[in-house]
Amino acid sequence: MLELYGHPFSSYTWKALIALYANGTPFVFHSLDGENPNQAAAYARVQEASPMGKFPLLVDGSREVFEATSIIEYLALHHPGPAPLIPADPDEAITTRMMDRVFDNYVMNAMQESVDDAIRHGQVSDEVRSRVEERVTRAYRWIDGWLADYTRPDTVSLIECAAVPALFYADWVTRIPEDCARLRQWRAHLLALPPVSRCVEDARRFRHYFPLGAPDRD
Ligand SMILES: N[C@@H](CCC(=O)N[C@@H](CS)C(=O)NCC(=O)O)C(=O)O
Fold first, then answer.
1. Are residues 107 and 185 in the same domain?
2. Which residues belong to any copy of the GST C-terminal domain (predicted)?
């Protein structure tokens, strides 16, 4: 049985969970939240598995896979299901992987600078706020243009797995501008997908952890 270590409120954990839920792949979830009586053991396992002890971590027998993207690649190869997580066509797969990098690097990680600043200093400095706003908004506008030619799948691929947590949390930090109508509509569409709404609902009770304060929506 596959095992996934992560936290229900963790963006990168969602990325892996969405892929597992979309394919109905059976797995045991080892939650790193304080409600889990085995939290300490789960945390220790995660700490040992990768250089920085980050999560999610997938365990398949003797195999450990970390980095959410690599977990999805592993699931596509070894535990495929109805949702084609990575396109079979190698050329199409390049675009899918490129977009995965766009969401991680230019939305999620760009937004994370504000979250880190809030954790470290209790608030976000004007300098960080404006830098994050400038970078994330630039990424939003680019993605909004990209969406004009994107044929949305009925289910999820690596692109959706990466887009969901990035757009969910980034919009809390820097709202997607009104004039990025395609992106706003796509975010709403993604949040309504069953594997995604499951993550959103399971994480709802942890929203008070969001260092910048979670908005009263979504
Ligand atoms: N590049 C990693 C990032 C994982 C990551 O940043 N995970 C966060 C939770 S969303 C984490 O482990 N935070 C705890 C820590 O940094 O110690 C991935 O794609 O999986």
1. yes
2. 89-212
Number of domains forming the structure of the chain:
2
Tens of pLDDT, residue by residue over 120-129, are 999 999 999 9
Same domain flag for 147 and 69: no
Tokens 């600043």 identify what position? Answer: 117
Candidate from 31, 55, 169 with most ligand 1 atoms within 8 A of CB, to mutate? 55
3-class DSSP state for residue 63?
Answer: strand
**pLDDT for 177:** 98
Cα-Cα end-to-end distance for the chain:
33
pLDDT tens digits for range 9-48: 999 999 999 999 999 999 999 999 999 999 999 999 999 9
Closest atom of ligand 1 relative to the 11 alpha carbon: 10
**For residue 29, what is the enclosing H or E element?**
strand 27-31
CA distance 167 to 161: 11
